[in-house]
């Protein structure tokens, strides 16, 4: 009886959590399916965002476990993906993308050489 009650609560409470997909003309694909013991949700947008997750309820404990990933395109054109798990122990990132590092390239300016007095003033 407890399992039926937990399943009822989860399926009533779940839709607000899985309606996070973008809406509009930018969608390439969208799926939101209730399965026998949970749900499956995914979407992809024209600008390179994507998300996929599967929620499964353990019938013996009533614990909902969500596994999935999301990806996005950074301004440099690279695509980054983050895998995650959420369960009774909380939300955890399984695979994290490397940080986006902006590389500064010094600009060489042709001109007169810098005097020793100016160089020494920069040192200290």
UniProtKB/TrEMBL annotation:
Pfam families named among the record's database cross-references: Chitin_bind_4
GO terms, molecular function: structural constituent of chitin-based larval cuticle
Native source species: Anopheles christyi
Taxonomic superkingdom: Eukaryota
InterPro entries: Cuticle_Struct_Prot, Insect_cuticle
Record's signal peptide: 1-20
Gene Ontology CC entries for this record: chitin-based extracellular matrix
Entry protein name: Uncharacterized protein
Keywords carried by this UniProt record: Cuticle, Signal
């Amino acid at each position: 009886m407890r399992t039926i009650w937990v399943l009822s609560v989860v399926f009533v409470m779940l839709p607000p959590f899985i309606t996070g997909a973008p809406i509009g003309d930018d969608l390439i694909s969208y799926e939101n399916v209730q399965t026998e013991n949970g749900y499956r949700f995914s979407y992809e947008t024209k600008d390179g965002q994507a998300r996929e997750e599967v929620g499964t309820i353990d019938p013996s404990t009533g614990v909902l476990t969500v596994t999935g990933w999301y990806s996005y395109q950074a301004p440099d054109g690279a695509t980054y993906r983050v895998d995650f798990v959420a369960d009774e122990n909380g939300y955890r990132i399984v695979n994290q993308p490397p940080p986006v590092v902006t590389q500064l390239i010094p600009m060489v300016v042709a001109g007169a050489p810098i005097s020793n007095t100016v160089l020494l003033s920069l040192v200290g």
